[in-house]
Amino acid sequence: MRVGIIGAGSIGNHFAHSFSKANWEIVVLDVSSVAIQRFQEEIYPGRYGKLPDGIQFTNSYQDFENTNFDFIVVGTPPDTHTKILEQISRKLTCPVLIEKPACTPDGQDFNSLVDLVNRHPSDVFVGFNHRVARSTQLLINVLETSTLGRLLKVDATWDESWAGILKAHPWLDSPSASYLGFTARGGGALFEHSHGVDLALYMASRFDSMEITGLSSTIEFSKEGGCDYDKVVQIHAKLKSGCEINIHQDVVTFPAKKKISLEFENGLAKIDFGVEGKFDNFEIQGFGSQDFLLSGSFEKTRPDDFDQEVRMIEKYLADKISIENHPLRARLGLFTAKFSAVALDVANKGFTSILIEA
Ligand SMILES: NC(=O)c1ccc[n+]([C@@H]2O[C@H](COP(=O)([O-])OP(=O)(O)OC[C@H]3O[C@@H](n4cnc5c(N)ncnc54)[C@H](O)[C@@H]3O)[C@@H](O)[C@H]2O)c1
């Protein structure tokens, strides 16, 4: 099996490492020769050691498009995803995973991406890796086999300071040196940390619906250090059923806080991600006739996040999971982008209620 990875930055390295462990051939494309050199000499050796045998690098789209791939990962900044999918879809027909966030908050960018995803000859995925974390999947499996009643409330927090993010990009002096410090480019708390929105909506889709009938949001913006971004985001949304969704995301909190909790009529469930940098702790509790408490912890490293994603891609390619049931299917990731763009609009324009169709 051969994977084409577009983008030789932080995520490109994570994927190259995980695909190489799964014995895939790897071709990495980046338009920047400096980025390719940094991959080869600094990022990969610094994180993982020796480069994978046979890994190839190119800065030519023409060479890349003349290669046969079984799968492609687009691991570049969010404001390039749509153009890249448009470019590669002309010649390459294999399934594609686009990294999160799928696109920028711009409505035209979103619509073009949806159109391209629909027209691409194979299935498209969006890389919200926390949906496929072992803790998330275990929680879903347990909840699906329990009868805890209606979902009443979902709370998601995804707070991590710039310091945490820049640690994975030591070659950047500040968020202004990349898309990270610019809301319009898909950076800032709302889009960069959209794992919070995404997990809340994913849980809503599993245990209720994706029908949002109301949304209000408060966003603190900043222009510090030559940036222009959303710094702290608070969203409240309501599903048609009345279920409440609360999401907090920021680029301020240190140490990071990443968690999701669900309240049902007869029970509670929660996950704390990355506790002490290495544990996903979960707790699921049933009340009344469903009296039980299940709690535990998955010890994990950063590479586990992407190993798990590669496993889910391999399951799809081996026909063990269909696109309609795949946790990484683009439809969900695109809904997260749409919901986040509406939250930005609502905060800017001061609406308090809106209907979003999935
Ligand atoms: N799921 C996760 O946990 C996770 C972690 C890190 C990054 N990401 C996502 O991955 C994406 C990339 O982030 P990153 O941290 O790797 O960024 P990065 O800046 O480290 O790397 C991006 C690379 O893309 C290259 N690039 C830019 N435009 C290109 C183009 N048109 N064609 C080919 N290469 C191009 C750049 O030269 C750069 O090397 C973002 O959307 C980010 O949110 C996700």
Briefly summarize what is shown:
The chain is built from eleven helices and 14 strands. It has 358 residues and is α/β, with parallel strands linked by helices. Helix 5 packs antiparallel against helix 11 (330-349).
Give a written overview of the molecule.
The chain is an alpha/beta fold and 358 residues long. It has two domains: 127 residues, 3-Layer(aba) Sandwich (Rossmann fold); 220 residues, 2-Layer Sandwich (Dihydrodipicolinate Reductase, domain 2). It is 35% helix and 27% strand. It has eleven helices and 14 strands. An eight-stranded mixed β-sheet has the order 8-9-10-7-11-12-13-14. It has a six-stranded parallel β-sheet with strand order 3-2-1-4-5-6, sandwiched between helices. Helix 1 crosses helix 2. It is globular and about 60 Å long.
Search tags:
35% helix, Rossmann fold, Dihydrodipicolinate Reductase, domain 2, 358 residues, 27% strand, six-stranded parallel beta sheet, alpha/beta, binds nicotinamide-adenine-dinucleotide
The helicity comes to 25-40%
Secondary structure tally, helices: 11
Order of helices and strands: EHEHEHEHEHEHEHHHEEEEEEEHH
The class by helix and strand makeup works out as alpha/beta
Give a topology summary:
Blueprint: E1 2-6, H1 10-21, E2 25-29, H2 33-48, E3 56-58, H3 61-65, E4 71-74, H4 81-89, E5 96-99, H5 107-119, E6 124-127, H6 134-144, E7 151-159, H7 162-167, H8 188-192, H9 195-207, E8 212-222, E9 229-239, E10 244-250, E11 257-264, E12 267-275, E13 279-286, E14 292-299, H10 302-317, H11 330-349
Parallel strand pairs: 1-2, 1-4, 2-3, 4-5, 5-6, 7-10
Antiparallel strand pairs: 7-11, 8-9, 9-10, 11-12, 12-13, 13-14
Helix pairs in contact: 1-2, 1-10, 4-5, 5-11, 9-11
The structure holds nicotinamide-adenine-dinucleotide.
